[in-house]
Design a protein that fits this description.
The protein has 1 helix and 4 strands. The protein is mainly beta. The chain has one domain: PEBP-like (Phosphatidylethanolamine-binding Protein). The strands form 2 sheets. Strands 1-2 form a two-stranded antiparallel sheet. Strands 3-4 form a two-stranded antiparallel sheet. The longest helix has 8 residues. It starts with 8 loop residues before the first strand and ends with a strand.
Length: 101
């Protein structure tokens, strides 16, 4: 069984945004107009990894290039995001990191 956990969703990132720090701000819309979705904690914003003690857990970070802007409201879920992206993905990058306590 594979359990995927969403730690944060950042929506409507501007094309000119080349790098960003993960926002610790728990607000629907960031000053640049980017919107944040709901994570698996049912909260807005990013909640970092917090695995139980023991062996390392893997965390996957994904970035998608789309052929247009998605019309998602702040607080969108992972499922809503995936449905809105269907047929619109031009490219994808994925990074996997390990973390343990």
């Amino acid at each position: 069984m594979v359990l995927l956990e969403v730690l944060g969703l950042l929506l409507s990132v501007k094309q000119q945004l080349l790098a960003f720090a993960v926002s610790s701000r728990k607000i629907d819309e960031l000053p640049g107009g980017e919107r944040q979705g709901r994570n698996d904690f049912r909260k807005i914003g990013y909640n970092g990894p917090c695995p139980p003690p023991g062996k390392p857990h893997r965390y996957f970070y994904k970035l998608y290039a789309l052929n247009g802007k998605l019309d998602l409201k702040p607080g969108a879920s992972k499922q809503e995001l995936e449905q809105a992206m269907e047929g619109r993905i031009l490219g994808k990058a994925e990074w996997m990191g390990k973390y343990q306590r």
